[in-house]
Structure prediction request, 263 residues.
Amino acid sequence: MTGSEESPSFRLAYVPGVTPAKWVRIWNERLPDVPLHLVAVSAAEAPDVLRGGSADAGLVRLPVDRTVFSAIPLYTETTVVVVPKDHVVAAVDEVSAGDLAEDIVLHPLDDVVGWERPPGLPAIERPATTADAIELVAAGVGLLIVPQSLARLHHRRDLTYRPVTDAPQSSVALSWPEDATTDLVEDFIGIVRGRTVNSTRGRTPPPAQQKRKPAAGKAGSGKAGAGKAAGKPGSGKAAAGKNPRGRSATPKAGKRGKPRRRS
Prediction:
């Protein structure tokens, strides 16, 4: 390798709430010589990071611009409302958006649920980030609706969360620039899709299987083939001019010599 060449590596962007550990572990097992570097980005930053080449692929939240990016949906999250532990919502198993009509529901600028306006009463100002909104929930200012993974990411002992049955849901996908589908991207696609290391759909398929020799017993294959061909009229003893009873295999012409007289 010359000084101008660099060893291959793979850069994977991921947004808050996504945990790529399982796929990273499989990557390290299958491609130990190709380091995988994680790039933490916000949901809003992810498209620019991928478009600018700062990452080869990303675990992002849908939707993405399908004229630029390819995307493989991976899973859809439950949407929950984060509340103080002494809030009335904490006493039930789940709520609807209508149940929050009289509460202040915070709407951070980095919201990923995907609605123009959450249910409930709006706050005077929108928090800059989800982390800021969590602090306001803890201070008793309002409630926050987020994907469940973000509620877990920002877990606090004084807060809890409950599913919101009729809220929009957030989906996570593997995405990459459509015109930059490299061999390493194909390798990672195979991992997230659960392909085995020997899958023929992977980037490096296993060596082509050699053509099997014709099975024994088929014409033209080994002794069996010769025997089968010899087993027809003209083979074995019959080939020597004898039928199985030891008589000549050739019909006797003498029996056809004279026709019988009619009485």
Remarks:
- Confidence is low (pLDDT under 50) at residues 205-213, 218-242, 248-254.
- The helical segments are 21-30, 46-51, 130-138, 148-153, 183-192, 222-230, 236-239.
- The two ends are 108 Å apart (CA to CA).
- The longest helix spans residues 21-30.
